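Chapter summary example.
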Amino acid sequence: MDWATLVGVAAGAAGTVALAPAVLTAAGFTAGGIAAGSVASWMMSTAAVANGGGVVAGSAVALLQSAGAAGLTAQPKSWST
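The structure predicted for these 81 residues follows.
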């Protein structure tokens, strides 16, 4: 692998990490839960219907919801003590 490829891969990885919070928030996976009427709510509804009423642990929806609930979103945080 040449240096240009390594630089491109590193830049892509850094961009993915930097943009992940904004993408999670835009999709509706927030620290307060899944936003009503969002892509996230559609995904959760579809997963629940497909699985008889619940979202399977470890599924994409569950993992994204966990990331949003953990605060890995672009929402401002309160730093009060």
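To summarize the output: Residues 31 and 64 are 11 Å apart (CA to CA).
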